[in-house]
TrEMBL record:
Pathway(s) where this gene product acts: Cell wall biogenesis; peptidoglycan biosynthesis
Species assigned in the record: Sandaracinomonas limnophila
Domain of life: Bacteria
Domain FAD-binding PCMH-type: from-to ranges: 19-191
Gene encoding the protein: murB
Annotated protein name in UniProt: UDP-N-acetylenolpyruvoylglucosamine reductase
Length: 342
């Protein structure tokens, strides 16, 4: 049975901002071979452009999409190797990220529990080097397989080749738009090394009288924290954190601490630089709860920009630019967007 290529499809159900833009052509794929066959047999559709869609959770669409939109629905989770200390798990690029994390937690394999409830798919996770609560993808990453869109060869990438950075990877820079990630392999520990020092994890565990937490306790605490802080895209369109937490020189950090007593900051590992929470900077600049039309800043978390229903992508971009300008004027810090704007 051939692939079902649909025309003039609204992408509103496929992006967490709930933005109503049209795709000229839309198709779901279930394997690397599906993509290879599609490219070989429908070359003409690719000439006006190609856009690969995962969970649509880190995406701001500002216009209709020409060419072809491919929804990665490559599924499957498989244990590929095991030792006394570790287990290697491979997951399809279309697997829902939180479902994969819960699978590892249920099986008592440690390493990803701090990344619970992050929206999106397994295939998108290494592109963004997703991270939360002191953990990043790169900490457990082993390798990934990706189809080279031009040559249609399947290539394997190790951690070094992925060039992971803070919410960055090779697939957002030099390799941008050149690969479809089909599966990702993670190396997980059989014996947990619990990480609870970041955010409010310890506080939540203390409230539950858990003094010796297991990975499922950490995962559950993080799920509760995220639900309390971040709006559910089913209720209100958003893509979680819109901006990266900025890193500045020690010199500027010292100046800011002098001018703004109580400003929260974090040391950057292996550097004298200092990281500041973008949400705090935005809130102090007066944006928390701001709304213009249907584009706004969330009332509980200033780091989250929202679509109250009928906002256009361009309106959310304009709002983000105003926020950047405001934070720059007040703190001398240039915010960078975490969300991919298209």
């Amino acid at each position: 049975m051939g692939l079902d290529i649909q025309q003039n499809i609204s992408l509103k159900p496929y992006n967490t901002f709930g933005l109503d833009v049209l795709a000229d052509n839309f198709v779901r794929i279930n394997s690397a071979q599906d993509f290879i066959d599609l490219k070989k047999n429908h070359q003409k559709l690719f000439e006006k452009g190609l856009f690969i869609l995962g969970g649509g959770s880190n995406l701001l669409l500002t216009h209709d999409v020409s060419g072809i939109v491919i929804k990665n629905e490559i599924l499957g989770i498989e244990k590929v190797k095991e030792s006394d200390e570790f287990v290697w798990l491979e997951a399809g690029g279309g697997v829902v990220w939180h479902d994969f994390v819960q699978f590892t937690v249920d099986n008592h394999w440690a390493g990803l529990e701090n990344l619970s409830l992050i929206p999106g798919t397994v295939g998108a996770a290494p592109m963004q080097n997703i991270g939360a609560y002191g953990v990043e993808i790169k900490d457990c990453f082993e390798s990934l397989d990706a189809v080279n869109i031009n040559s249609l060869e399947i290539e394997k990438f190790n951690g070094a080749q992925c060039q992971f950075g803070y919410r960055e990877s090779y697939f957002k820079r030099g390799g941008k738009g050149q690969y479809l990630i089909t599966k990702v392999c993670f190396k997980l520990r059989k014996k947990a090394e619990i990480s609870t020092s970041y955010g409010a994890i310890q506080e939540v565990l203390k409230q539950k009288n858990i003094s010796n937490p297991e990975i499922k306790d950490v995962s559950q605490a993080i799920i509760e924290i995220r639900k309390s802080k971040l709006p559910d895209p089913k209720d209100i369109g958003n893509s979680g954190s819109f901006f990266k937490n900025p890193t500045v020189s020690k010199e500027l950090a010292d100046k800011l601490k002098l001018n703004f007593p109580g400003i929260p900051s974090y040391a950057v590992e292996g550097s004298s630089d200092v990281k500041f929470p973008a949400g705090w900077l935005i809130e102090k600049s007066g944006w928390k709860g701001f709304r213009k039309g249907d584009a706004g800043v969330h009332a509980k978390q200033a780091l989250v920009l929202v679509n109250y229903g009928m906002a256009k992508g361009k309106e959310i971009v304009e709002l983000s630019e105003e926020i950047k300008k405001s934070v720059w004027n007040m703190f001398g810090i240039q915010l960078e967007t975490e969300v991919n704007i298209m």
